[in-house]
Amino acid sequence: MRKSFYIILLAFWAALEAPVDAYLDPGSGSMLLQVLLGGFAAVGVIAKLYWHRVTSVFRRKDSPEDSL
After folding, report:
1. Can you say how many angstroms the Cα of residue 29 is from the centroid of all Cα atoms in its chain?
2. Coil/strand/helix, residue 11
3. Are 54 and 47 in contact, with CB atoms under 8 Å apart?
4. Whole-number pLDDT of residue 68
5. Among 22-31, 41-50, 54-63, which stretch is predicted with the lowest mean pLDDT?
6. DSSP label at 64?
7. DSSP letter (8 states) at residue 18
8. If you placed Cys at 24, which of 12, 28, 39, 65 could pair as Cys (CB 3.0 to 4.6 Å)?
9. Mean pLDDT of the chain
């Protein structure tokens, strides 16, 4: 039952496809790579900026009695 539903859905989707005149020039791949690398760099910078907050969750809090 479920398998036949997916087959019908795939056939319906394939019937609706239309040819598209699209062109990806060589610069498109370079731009995509720059976006991905920029995103990774942004995540790294954010992690570095908030590293103390992230690590403070895992640190043990010393009570005032322990410092005496």
Report:
1. 18
2. helix
3. yes
4. 56
5. 54-63
6. T
7. -
8. 28
9. 84
> How many CA atoms, within 13 angstroms, populate the side-chain half-sphere of residue 40?
5
Q: Give every CB contact of residue 1 below 8 A, 6+ residues apart in sequence.
A: none
Residue 13 pLDDT exceeds 60 = yes
For residue 45, the model assigns a pLDDT of 93
Cα first-last separation, the chain:
72
pTM, to two decimals? 0.48
Q: Using CA atoms, how far apart are residues 47 and 33, in angstroms rounded to an integer?
A: 21
Please give the biggest Cα pair distance in the chain: 78
Q: Is 14 exposed, middle or buried (0-12, 13-18, 19+ CB in 10 A)?
A: exposed
Domain that holds residue 35: 28-57
Residue 10, in any domain of the structure: no
